[in-house]
Amino acid sequence: MATQPTGNLDFEEQRMRIVRAIEEVEKMSAETRKLLAGANKVGAETKAVPFATVFQGLIAIAGLLGAGAAIAKLFFP
pLDDT digit string (tens) for 28-66? Predict the structure, then answer.
């Protein structure tokens, strides 16, 4: 038989933390998509297309770091 964990586990609180973390990740993803769309527009309007890909990479890295921080916050509160 499985042993029961000792202590008081508030599953509703854990569920709400997970929901908030997911909402935070979705918000960061939406912001990242918005920034990428802006970078694509600027890249199309200017002749600095090689630099636009660098900015896209930086924005993508920033989005991944933000999502990673939200997930880390979820697992290590």
Answer: 888 888 888 887 777 666 665 566 677 778 888 888 888
The C-alpha atoms of residue 34 and residue 75 are separated, in whole angstroms, by 28
Q: Say how far apart CA 55 and CA 62 lie, in whole Å.
A: 10
Contacts of 39 (CB under 8 A, 6+ apart): 52, 55, 56, 59
| Strand residues in the chain grouped as ranges (E) | none
Rg of the chain on CA atoms, in Å: 19
Report whether pLDDT(23) > 60.
yes
From the centroid of its chain, how far is CA 54?
Answer: 20
Identify the H or E element spanning 29: helix 11-45
pTM here is: 0.46
Decide: 32 and 23 in contact? Cβ < 8 Å. Answer: no
Task: Output DSSP code: residue 6.
Answer: S
